[in-house]
Design a protein that fits this description.
mainly beta; Lipoxygenase-1; Immunoglobulin-like; Jelly Rolls; 9 domains; 8-stranded antiparallel β-sheet; flat
């Protein structure tokens, strides 16, 4: 809580330790990361006296009051109000209310204090810092409602002369307004009506004060402010040579780059870092360097060191005399700014003597200019010295908002021979440059050092020749005043020679970054970017460069990019005069469902005109690098290429899945002999044979015909099958070769094939191999079926132990129905034939694990953590037995902060899909279905279960609501079964709760996983999780199994009163219930072979629970004997 006055801390710890004077606020945050900007304002008798907030998972705060005070509480909203709860008790200890989640914003409670504390006279000490007052004054005073604003009734004194004036005044407990003035109102402070310590009145803006029952001292404030005075850092004043030489610069460093520095300089958090532009955190740091391109800053985001030191190169003060000063430019913006300490030592490893320190924020905004700080170093004159900049993290404010920055570090001393200055570079070409400087005094000789090599000069300018193109050069100049009297080096200056034409063959890999000889178009929408590894967006862009471990150039298509945006870059100029058959070779990667267009144009660099387009492609080419070989037809000897990316969008209007990339861009001599493998055809399907054909396509990319080469393939790393080609393949033609030797793919599974083209004279063997794969999908065995016996006119049920398609013939015939059971009504004994279909699915009841096991760590084949997490710890979920639905269950609780995913292995969008789960909902329930195999890439739908209401959202809109039983009559949660079924032929979903349909909705988007996410308020237990999928192209059994329905003539048999029979659930996991309206006398259960597996006698009840969990999964027949007849029913145990 930010208290306006320190008296409340004294109240809480002293006077009111035992008195009943305090309102107490107990605050919680369910996620544990604090209130994220939310707070509670507390006012007493109309004056705001406190602002309370919660850090971490919980905080307790209080406010002292007097009897009869009117206390008002107001809630200020933050970023995550759904995580917030709090309770308030009055001074007597009585609860006034419990609030949240999502407390009402604004005033929510007004109460008259029943505190036992009453007004008394106490001594109040006022303190005001007058150090920044620019008006003339003699004696400050404090005026307020207690002295009727009398003027100089309460004068203040400054006994120690530190600029802070004080006055101690006896006041009764209560609330007052006051302000500081001087010399009987000759001047008065002007306060901000919106500031925390004022009354908010824009006309009569006064400070507010609440006086308790014990002596108090008000914190020192600056005149006209609620805070202490912020004095500027120590300014640079220059050196005083007092006739002993002249001021001269002996050291300068603009952090471009930090050559020669040492210490805690790196790239991570908690280190000094080189940077240009803004820092990575909002609300802190500068927006750019003070001068030059870079600056040095400490990154205060979580991690790394709490104290870090950066040490300068050696600063040479050996030639100095009388005085010396270090100066640097500092930017200290952010509520979490800590302490910067500047030290000096004659050793780079210290110890360092502290010369200056600064603590806290100085700049008010990121865009505010740097401030130049000066540090006297006279005691180090005549020595070689190192300066340390040590930063200690702050302990207040927002921790990551403490990025302090320094730039342009310089040292000046008194010199007899002053170093030259104002170094200037001009007329830079690829091989030459002119440099000049301003003399430090009257010297007539200088020593110029360029990249470590020195030459004597007799004028203040020099022409440098024989330089290397596209190379960085740094130079410094020493003044030679007399023999043995040479100045320190001037500040360094740098330049880079321009590019000359690269001589073909060339190959730009971008592994050294974006070449200085390449350029970005300034008239397009955005730029190409150097990258390594994968691009930020899923399901688009490469995962690495072409060769692995290097860089590539790509266009980032995420926001703020939009449809039609264009990025163009230009290659270096390439001299192709030495090539007979110039060929452009480059790699492109165009993967994503919003892929746009890539164009490459050829330019004549001598004239700056376009020769023509040499490559264009639009749309997705798959997740792969594609090699392009393009013969160049031009008379130009100096050529250049423009590479242009134009963004497109997908069916959802999104551009982000459109990251395109290029790599290895260059021109070379076209190969005379160059065969390339471009495609392979290998079948995937059901019931593959031992003679599967293998096909390979080869193109002649060379300049001559080829007629003697070998083609081969190897299956799963086996011995290659090699076949020789003797026919002629002309330049530019493609050969489609079907191998005479077929492949045996009868076993179910994946087959990896390695292809090769072997030409002994091939100039580019890199494109002579290819990998491909095929799969013989799982084909189920013929199902086990069960028929039925009925009276003519009744309905029969035939069933199978797997999902099946039912026909009226053993082969061919007509489709009768599908499913693991169907109802039929033949008029005569009839055979039905079941053809099993392959299904995918998984069932989990968590009973095979130990309590405390982590589900992802235990079963990584089916479960995964949310991206960025690690299985088996804080990101995983634990098995629990507290609410087992007949055993263990999975605890899903917001307090655990975990987030796991049940994966389906692929994205299903055809056929049928089914998902079921049992939930014991203590708080709220929540899951969501993911659309893509890549977790987090796209949401299919979100489902909430809150207070007995089930809601399904698709794309943020509710598409179905239903009901479930939240609690039993005693108010305790109960188990509910939720089922979600989709027929993808229409995209129709149907939702069931405990077997009762809640309605349907249409959503044809695919499903690839279910995310068990415990958001705010979520707390439940999960059990019996099951999913299943049947795709339209699922493999089917090679044969069918017969199920016979026997139809009997029952016209002469008295109808048995069978009653209403129900077996549920069916299918089941072995535990089920048999219920009939007529009492059951005996149950006999047999397997598909007729063997009795269980018999229950002398029941005489209408409801029986059956347990077959110790038996194998499959189909069983139940013979139910009642007092009025015998019934037969089938049951499937899964």
């Amino acid at each position: 809580m930010k208290k306006i006055f320190t008296l409340f801390t004294m109240f809480l710890t002293a006077t009111f330790a035992s008195a009943q004077c305090h309102y107490v606020v107990d605050m919680q945050d369910s996620y544990g990361d604090g209130w994220n900007g939310a707070s509670i304002d507390v006012s007493v008798n109309g004056s705001t006296v406190a602002n309370m907030t919660c850090s971490g998972s919980g905080s307790i705060d209080s406010i002292a009051t007097l009897n009869g005070d009117v206390v008002e509480f107001s809630f200020n909203s933050g970023s995550w109000d759904s995580e917030i709860t709090f309770q308030i008790t009055d001074p007597s200890g009585a609860a006034l209310g419990s609030y949240g989640p999502n407390p009402a914003v604004g005033v929510f409670l007004t109460n008259t204090s029943n505190a036992t504390c009453v007004p008394t006279t106490v001594n109040v000490t006022f303190q005001v810092d007058m150090g920044l007052v620019t008006s003339a004054f003699t004696t400050p005073e404090v005026n307020g409602t207690w002295n009727s604003w009398c003027g100089n009734c309460n004068p203040m004194t400054d006994a120690d002369g530190d600029g802070v004036w004080e006055a101690t005044i006896p006041l009764l407990s209560g609330n007052y307004e006051y302000k500081y003035s001087a010399d009987a109102w000759t001047i008065q402070e002007m306060n901000d009506p919106t500031a925390s310590c004022t009354n908010g009145d824009p006309v009569y803006t006064n400070r507010v004060l609440s006086v308790g029952t014990s002596d108090m001292t008000i914190s020192t404030v600056c005149w006209g402010s609620c805070s202490a005075c912020v004095y500027p850092p120590q300014a640079a004043v220059g050196v005083n040579c007092a006739g002993n030489g002249n001021p001269g610069l002996v050291f300068t460093d603009e952090i471009d780059p930090t050559t020669g520095w040492s210490g805690d300089i790196g790239t991570g958090n908690g280190y000094w870092r080189i940077n240009s532009g803004g820092t990575t955190s909002s609300g802190t740091g500068p927006t750019a360097a003070h001068s030059g391109a870079d600056y040095l800053f400490f990154e205060t985001s979580t991690g790394g060191l709490d104290t870090a030191t950066a040490i300068t190169p050696a600063i040479d003060l050996t030639a100095g005399g009388t005085d010396a000063e270090l100066s640097f430019w500092m930017h200290a913006y952010g509520s979490g700014i800590g302490t910067l300490r500047v030290g000096a030592s004659t050793s780079a490893t210290g110890p360092f003597t502290e010369l200056y320190s600064w603590s806290g924020q100085y700049q008010a905004n990121q865009t505010d200019p740097y401030y130049q700080v000066g540090v006297n170093m006279a005691s180090y004159v005549g020595q070689m010295v190192y300066v340390s900049f040590t930063y200690e993290r702050g302990t207040s404010g927002v921790s990551y908002q403490g990025d302090i920055a320094i730039d342009l570090i310089q040292a000046n001393t008194c010199l007899n021979c002053v170093a030259p200055s104002a170094l200037t570079t001009s007329n830079v070409t690829g091989t030459s440059a002119d440099v000049s400087w301003t003399a430090g005094g009257t010297e007539t000789e200088w020593f110029l050092i360029v990249n470590g090599a020195g030459t004597s000069q007799t004028s203040t300018n020099a022409s440098l020749t024989g330089l290397t193109p596209n190379t960085a050069y740094t130079y410094q100049v020493h003044a030679i005043c007399a023999v043995g009297d040479t100045s320190a080096a001037s500040p360094a200056s740098s330049f880079t020679t321009s590019c000359t034409a690269s001589v073909a063959p060339t190959n730009e890999t971008f592994d050294a970054g974006f070449s200085n000889c390449w350029s970005q178009d300034t008239a397009d929408t955005f730029d190409w970017t150097v990258d390594a590894g994968g691009t930020p967006s899923p399901s688009t862009g490469p995962s690495d460069d072409f060769t692995g471990g290097g860089n590539y150039m790509y266009t980032e298509a995420s926001l703020p990019r939009a449809y039609g945006d264009v990025a163009t870059m230009y290659s270096e100029v390439i001299d192709i005069s030495g090539l007979t058959n110039p060929e452009l070779r480059f790699l492109n990667h165009m993967y994503g469902d919003a892929m746009g267009t890539l164009e490459v144009d050829l330019w004549d660099a001598s004239t700056g005109t376009v020769v023509g387009n040499v490559f264009t492609h639009t749309g997705d080419r798959g997740n792969q690098w594609n090699e392009e070989l393009i013969m160049l037809s031009t008379t130009a000897t100096l050529v250049q290429f423009s590479i242009t990316a134009t963004l497109d969008s997908n069916v959802n209007g999104q551009t982000w899945p459109g990251d395109m990339a290029i790599d290895e861009f260059g021109v070379r001599e076209a190969a005379a002999n160059d065969l390339a493998v471009v495609a392979a055809a290998v079948a995937s399907g059901c019931d593959l044979t031992a003679t599967e054909p293998i096909e390979l396509w080869v193109v002649n990319q060379g300049l001559v015909a080829e007629s003697a080469f070998d083609l081969s393939y190897a299956v799963n790393g086996g011995t290659p099958v090699v076949e020789s080609i003797t026919s002629t393949l002309n330049p530019g033609d493609t050969l489609k070769h079907v191998f005479a030797a077929t492949a045996d793919m009868t076993a179910d599974g994946v087959y990896n094939l390695d292809f090769a083209c072997v030409l002994s004279t091939d100039n580019d063997p890199a494109d002579n191999t290819m990998m491909s794969s095929a799969e013989n999908y799982y084909t189920p065995m013929a199902p086990v079926t069960m028929g039925d016996t009925i009276c003519n006119g009744d309905t029969a049920m035939v069933s199978a132990d797997e999902y099946s398609y039912w026909y009226d013939a053993a082969t061919g015939g007509n489709l009768v129905g599908e499913g693991d059971e169907i109802d039929v009504m033949p008029t005569a004994t009839t055979s039905y034939y079941a053809e099993a279909a392959a299904t995918a699915g998984h069932f989990e009841d968590f009973d095979s694990y130990n309590v405390g096991d982590y589900i992802v760590a235990s079963d990584p084949s089916n479960w995964d953590v949310w991206p960025g997490g690690t299985p088996g710890g804080a990101y995983d979920m634990q098995i629990d037995d507290a609410q087992g639905n007949g055993g263990n269950s999975l605890r899903v609780d917001n307090a655990d902060g975990t987030d796991v995913v049940l994966e389906f292995g692929e994205a299903f969008s055809s056929g049928y899909f089914y998902y079921s789960m049992d939930m014991y909902i203590v708080g709220d329930g929540y899951i969501n279905f993911q659309e893509q195999v890549t977790i987090g890439a796209a949401w299919n739908m979100s489902i909430t279960m809150i207070g007995g209401v089930l809601n399904v959202d698709v794309d943020g809109a509710s598409v179905l609501t239903g009901a479930y039983t939240a609690t039993n009559p005693t108010g305790n949660p109960v188990w509910n079964t939720f089922e979600f079924e989709c027929d993808y032929s229409t995209g129709t979903w149907e939702v069931f709760v405990n077997g009762t349909s809640q309605g349907t909705f249409v959503n044809a988007d695919p499903v690839a996983s279910v995310n068990i996410y415990p958001g705010a308020g979520v707390n439940y237990y999960l059990d019996n999780v099951e999913w299943g999928a049947l795709k339209d192209d699922a493999c089917r059994s090679a044969s069918r199994t017969e199920a016979v329905v026997t139809v009997e003539d029952c016209s002469n048999i008295l109808e048995l009163a069978k009653g209403d029979l129900d077996v549920y659930p069916n299918p089941n996991n072995g535990s089920f219930t048999v219920e009939n309206s007529v009492d059951i006398v005996k149950l006999t259960i047999t397997d598909v072979h007729g063997k009795i597996v269980q018999s229950i006698n002398e029941i005489n009840l209408n409801k029986v629970d059956v347990d077959l969990t110790d038996l194998e999964k499959g189909m069983y027949m139940i013979n139910i004997e009642t007092k009025k007849g015998t019934l037969t029913e089938s049951v499937i145990v899964q």
